[in-house]
């Protein structure tokens, strides 16, 4: 076992301190919540880095095969952060230390302006690179990030529009034919898995009606329609159920009765008073579902051959390109945590009652 | 209102029937239909239903009979998802019960760790695990149960705390029962109802996750019959053999929905209010 350096121990100490601090502080006020997200990010890092060790046997041999030369296996082990420069196996602490610093370097370089990049790079830990192309992992990911964000964003907008309208119809027309229809649609949407809905959409709209392309991203917005529907439907169904119950609860409140009593037309009561109060549980639910949406994009991208991070992840898994796999998984997990935090802050802007709780 | 309740009970009954059918096919099906349909039959490659010699639901890549593959796929699905659910419920029970007995500060720490696990999108971790572990049934079960237990642990902890505040627990303590006896004999018997509900939801989620992993080509060694794997073939040959994509998708949807509706029904029947958990 090669010994851990001071830098390794400092890295570990920072990770542990952040997690303990977040745990001790709970998550009510804004800085504490940021710390909680940091702890989540670091926890995800520990999981992603540590799990390579969970592989029984020597990871380098598994990846390269039994016939690979000792030199090649040693080089790969070094790249994986499993052994140090002399070939002695690294303990868990230095392994994690290197991983965290490598990920940090990649993050800093990705954020730095191009002019600073060359001056910054030599001062940082070596950043993780793809096994196959030797490119930095952040460059590989950056090429695919836009497509995934476009897909997830379109799916999210679609889900909000469809889900909230369906839920509002189900609440306002409760017990009537239209309301039951909206409820039934949302139940069906929740039940159909993405990787089946996608092929069904392709069969109907690409093969049958020939309205839209079956896969790829060559036709701009037209290519985006089917993947976005396929990814967004489950979220739309969840949002429809949330909207329905939130509106039903709000519509029974005193301030709604007051608004009605002062002679406001029903449409204005709904949009001006009820919608604002009902928005909080809906926004909270969006936050809770963001991680699922990002992970669901992996499956959707495969169905539609969408050139995003999901297909990158699957390609990299097939090629055993561990650093890229780790990068995508880590970025997705941290992205979900950060987005969840952002959504939580948004609820505080929408509902003033939540802001007061911070000081209570 | 009464009409609505009657309709809900009808949905529950339908879900129970589908769930029982799933269990029956997974347990008995492979013995009944044999494995002859899984052998290569190249003349029947991608044959649609209705062609001479083709199976009832048509044939898949290399002429494998779709119906036989679906029956064997049900067994794969139940083995992986069922075992993952047992791990989920077992680990969740132990961690949740122990967490409820800790000091408040320590409980807060455990809760934060559970939060970190729950913040990690479950299917993403499953994909990562299935990718780094060698393809086998134990790896698949591990991947499927990696984060789900954290949600169960939270539910168990909440419920256990509720029960510990009750009079009969105080009485048992006053009579000198050891902490372990209080936990096992006076608290845990009240935890089974939410655990059953949680287990039903977990099984539904695990069936979906197993199918997703198989669809992505992860999890079990290639050639193992699975619903997700069949659907993967269905997508690959969508324009040549659309019949391939329909049946496995229907099976996955029906099984996932059945255990989910069953969980809803159990929750209403047992009057369990689950703690809000991000799923």
Descriptive tags:
heterodimer; A: 360 residues; mainly alpha; MetI-like fold; 2 domains; 15 helices; B: mainly alpha; 71% helix; disordered N terminus
Please describe what this structure looks like:
The complex is a heterodimer of chains A (360) and B (279). Chain A folds into two domains: 6-123, no CATH class; 141-359, MetI-like fold, CATH 1.10.3720. Chain A has helices at residues 6-25, 30-54, 59-64, 70-79, 92-111, 114-120, 137-172, 177-191, 194-208, 221-251, 254-261, 266-304, 309-318, 322-350, 352-357. The radius of gyration of chain A is 25 Å and the shape is globular. In chain A, 77% of the residues lie in helices and 0% in strands. Chain A has 360 residues and is an all-alpha fold. The relative contact order of chain A is 0.11. Chain B has one domain (3-278): MetI-like fold (Orthogonal Bundle), CATH 1.10.3720.10. Chain B is 71% helix and 0% strand. Chain B has eleven helices and no strands. The two termini of chain B are 30 Å apart. At the A-B interface, α1, α2, α9, α12 and α13 of A face α3, α4, α9, α10 and α11 of B.
Give the count of helical stretches of chain A. Answer: 15
In angstroms, what separates the terminal alpha carbons of chain B?
30 Å
* Count of separate structural domains of chain A: 2
Biggest interface, residues from each chain: A-B, 54 and 47 residues
Q: Number of helical runs of chain B?
A: 11
Oligomeric state: heterodimer
Q: Tell me the series of helices and strands of chain B, N- to C-terminal.
A: HHHHHHHHHHH
CATH topology of chain B, what is it called? MetI-like fold
Task: Give the tally of β-strands of chain B.
Answer: 0
How many DSSP E strands of chain A?
A: 0
CATH class of chain B: Mainly Alpha
Q: Report, as a whole number of angstroms, the end-to-end distance of chain A.
A: 51 Å
Please name the fourth-level CATH homologous superfamily of chain B: MetI-like
Structural class by SSE content of chain A: mainly alpha
Give the % helix of chain B.
Answer: over 70%
